[in-house]
Amino acid sequence: MAGASSDDRGTTNHGKGPQDTEADLSSSKGSDALISARKGVLQKEDFSEEEIAKIAQKAADLNVKILKPMAGDSIDHTAGDAVQLMQEHNCPVVFKFNSQTMVVSHKDTMEGVVAAYHAELDEAYKRYWTPERVAEKEAKDAAFKAEMNQAFETLPEFFKKWVVDARSSIYGRDLDILISKDAHLLATTLKSVEAIENWYQLDHGAQMSAVQGLSNHHSGGSFSLMVNLAARFLKAEAGQG
Phi and psi dihedrals of 97, rounded to 5? Predict the structure, then answer.
């Protein structure tokens, strides 16, 4: 393979084949234009200047193949695909995985690529979590825990019991209290299971407007659990549960 192109398990992002593209550029503009064209392909694939500079360390002419991992691919599977693609096309392969840009060249193995990925991920983590950021996070976590401890004391017994019984929940005690707090707010605002069911069908913006004060900390799973818990609370209050 001659020019930078994108691999989507067999397809490229060029109308022409990459060899035709290189032949045209080489005859008319020279190697600088060819490298510029390859850089343009990388930019179109959302590689930043910093990432392109990293690629150039292993492929100065930017003569690379771009591998696009599929949803659900593991780093091991992606690294294996990259090594195979590099061997098939006899040129370096680049891919992004969890925001890390990896460049696979001729001497690389699948195991080496995986090890390099984890090492770079660790370095990125260390660069981000400066002592100041760690201290800020610890302060926010402590404030949230204090807020949830205070909220727990104001919950009806139904929710207190649920928090205690759910102590092995995947969310942990603090988020279980938040789920209970919002479930109580939802139940007391809408006042019926039918109203909750209708509210649940609204888009997120309409939901937040209809029930003021709900937290933005929920994941999809905790949000659904909160809605279910609110309905259970109303049924229990009505003697139905």
Answer: -145, 120
Is the pLDDT assigned to residue 64 strictly greater than 80?
yes
Q: What whole-number distance in Å separates Cα of residue 50 and Cα of residue 179?
A: 42
Amino acid identity of residue 125, one-letter, is Y
Q: Which residues contact 84 (CB under 8 A, 6 or more apart)?
A: none
Structure tokens at 61: 């002419």
Q: How far apart are CA 82 and CA 32, in angstroms?
A: 27
Question: What is the predicted pLDDT for the residue at 170?
Answer: 83
Q: Which residues pair with 150 in a beta bridge?
A: none
3-state secondary structure of 100: strand
Q: Specify whether the CB–CB gap between 22 and 69 falls below 8 A.
A: no
**Portion of the chain with pLDDT greater than 70, in percent:** 86
Tokens at 142, concatenated? 């402590």
Query: In 57-172, at which residue ranges do the beta strands (DSSP E only) sit?
Result: 65-67, 93-97, 100-104
Q: What is the mean pLDDT of residues 118-127?
A: 94
d(CA 193, CA 3): 61
What is the pTM assigned to this prediction?
Answer: 0.59
Return phi, psi of residue 192, to 5°: -150, 155
For helices 157-165 and 220-237, the axis angle rounded to 10 degrees is 130
